[in-house]
Design goal:
By secondary structure, the chain is an alpha+beta fold. It has a domain of 112 residues. The chain is built from 2 helices and 12 strands; from the N terminus they run αββββββαββββββ. The radius of gyration is 30 Å and the shape is elongated. InterPro entries: Flagellin/pilin_N_arc (IPR013373), Pilin_N_archaeal (IPR012859). This is Archaeal Type IV pilin N-terminal domain-containing protein. It comes from Haloarcula marismortui (strain ATCC 43049 / DSM 3752 / JCM 8966 / VKM B-1809).
């Protein structure tokens, strides 16, 4: 045999080992992805909605009120949406609490363009007799929860008033 033949035969086992190591590395990465849960679904995106708020500061028999009109955007299901109000007071300065979810009481199962929700005194507890609802310093948030699972993320899809517009 000549030296040229010996060199050519030695190349095949080296290439085979390199290919085998590459295949093992790819298989290990694939198994790692599934074992570590990287293959789970991407987080759900919050719906995009356009809401127009009509705030009436006049203290009528029911005190101040806030109308929310869904003017356009994605369809939202009533069971995935809740209202959170903080900073609401009575006209005498007493802190009051939103007692009911106005969305559950006033909206149909599917909330689409044209749906209107009213936030008013009758939905709050802690208002002394003779006082009215005062939303002047209140903040309202519409919170969307995509699932009933405790680990799912929630999203604020609307905030009133816009923090940049508050005096």
């Amino acid at each position: 045999m000549s030296r040229v033949d010996e060199r050519r035969r030695a190349v095949s086992p080296v290439i085979g080992v390199v290919i085998l190591v590459g295949i093992v590395a790819i298989l290990a990465a694939t198994v790692g992805v599934f074992a570590l849960g990287f293959s789970e679904q991407q987080p759900t995106q919050a719906p995009q909605v356009a809401i127009v708020a009509d705030y009436n500061e006049r203290t009528t028999g029911n005190g101040e009120y806030l109308n929310l009109s869904f003017s356009s955007g994605d369809t939202v299901y009533r069971n995935n949406l809740s209202v959170v109000v903080s900073g609401a007071k009575s006209s005498g300065g007493t802190d009051v609490t939103l007692d009911t979810n106005p969305i559950q009481a006033q909206a149909s199962t599917r909330i689409t363009s044209g749906t209107e929700i009213t936030i008013h005194q009758g939905q709050f507890t802690g208002i002394p007799s003779g006082d009215h609802l005062d939303l002047r310093d209140a903040t309202l948030r519409l919170v969307w929860n995509p699932a009933d699972e405790p680990e799912s993320e929630t999203y604020v899809i609307y905030r009133w008033p816009d923090p940049s517009q508050r005096n």
